[in-house]
Amino acid sequence: MIERIISDGRGEELLGAAVAEHGKGAVLATVHEIQDRHDAAREVERSLLELHQVCRAATRSWARRSSCKCLCIGIIILLLLVLLVIVPIATSFRKS
Length: 96
Hints:
With 96 residues, the protein is mainly alpha-helical. The chain is built from three helices and no strands.
């Protein structure tokens, strides 16, 4: 809203009216309060972005572990299949 007032070119007019009505000290205190709230909102935004990055990293880590687990299970199944094929063939050669 403040940016809209400034972009309309009425910022100086409104500021002058506020100073005339409430005094310079009250207007400066309000401006400082607005700036403090703006800084706090930016800090919250920065914290949320950091939290989002941490959650994304945790998700990627879980996905890596999951894919590694699947790879290990696949290798074990492959080895079992190879053993199931090789053992009967090897025993049939010994009998002959």
